[in-house]
TrEMBL record:
<protein>
    <recommendedName>
        <fullName>Deoxyuridine 5'-triphosphate nucleotidohydrolase</fullName>
        <ecNumber>3.6.1.23</ecNumber>
    </recommendedName>
</protein>
<dbReference type="InterPro" id="IPR033704">
    <property type="entry name" value="dUTPase_trimeric"/>
</dbReference>
<dbReference type="InterPro" id="IPR008181">
    <property type="entry name" value="dUTPase"/>
</dbReference>
<comment type="similarity">
    <text>Belongs to the dUTPase family.</text>
</comment>
<keyword id="KW-0460">Magnesium</keyword>
<dbReference type="GO" id="GO:0046081">
    <property type="term" value="P:dUTP catabolic process"/>
</dbReference>
<keyword id="KW-0479">Metal-binding</keyword>
<comment type="function">
    <text>Involved in nucleotide metabolism via production of dUMP, the immediate precursor of thymidine nucleotides, and decreases the intracellular concentration of dUTP so that uracil cannot be incorporated into DNA.</text>
</comment>
<comment type="subunit">
    <text>Homotrimer.</text>
</comment>
<dbReference type="InterPro" id="IPR029054">
    <property type="entry name" value="dUTPase-like"/>
</dbReference>
<dbReference type="GO" id="GO:0006226">
    <property type="term" value="P:dUMP biosynthetic process"/>
</dbReference>
<keyword id="KW-0378">Hydrolase</keyword>
<dbReference type="GO" id="GO:0000287">
    <property type="term" value="F:magnesium ion binding"/>
</dbReference>
<dbReference type="GO" id="GO:0004170">
    <property type="term" value="F:dUTP diphosphatase activity"/>
</dbReference>
<comment type="pathway">
    <text>Pyrimidine metabolism; dUMP biosynthesis; dUMP from dCTP (dUTP route): step 2/2.</text>
</comment>
<dbReference type="Pfam" id="PF00692">
    <property type="entry name" value="dUTPase"/>
</dbReference>
<keyword id="KW-0546">Nucleotide metabolism</keyword>
Amino acid sequence: MLALRTSRYSRNACAATPAKAANTTTTRPSHCVYYPQSIFFFKNQTTFNNYNFVTTFIKNITTATSNNINNNTTTTTTITTKFTNFFSHLRFCTDSHNKMTTEQNKKQKLEATESLKVHLRSDKARVPTKGSVLAAGYDLYSSEDAIIPAQGQGLVSTDISIIVPIGTYGRVAPRSGLAVKHGISTGAGVIDADYRGEVKVVLFNHSTKDFEIKAGDRIAQLVLERIVNADIEEISEDQLTATDRGEGGFGSTGKN
């Protein structure tokens, strides 16, 4: 931020010294008979888009006004031009910063939402739907014909990209009907909040027959789940709290 404070013109050099705040870079030109008693100072130097330009400008103005110009039209015109260029540049920097801030705000507002945003990447894509009002998952639709071989697997396209609500991730889960009737399950089903690529579904065919998929078929469901993004803290063995289970692993809590 550039602040300009002016007082009346004076032929006497100004003896006042501007206050200098902590962590603030202060630039003050010397005064002369044709220089207003003004104080230029910068706050938060690192946030100004072109600090070097501003300091160079002030040095030029200071040098020009250090001479007794006595209504010299040429020099006055030069100073006026410098002021015009400076404030044009300052306005450009401000407009650029405001535009950047606006774009950042739009992005944050878009991502900080409680709605599931869906982009259809082709005319074959379909918006996920719910089978009932209280259904946990959104049905995902295939955008292509495909065959999942018996005892094999395949990667099926949906041609959609999504933005999940902040604080959640998308989990691709099997559809119960496909699992029971055809032995079809899903794998590798985590969609991170910052993923913007196409959502594809890994399908496993556990049956002894090939499974045929047509474009528009429901192939899986998308469940939104809350997550905690915790910081990692390394601890020693002594800091592991004791529990009844201890190090008991597979099968340690019972036969089934």
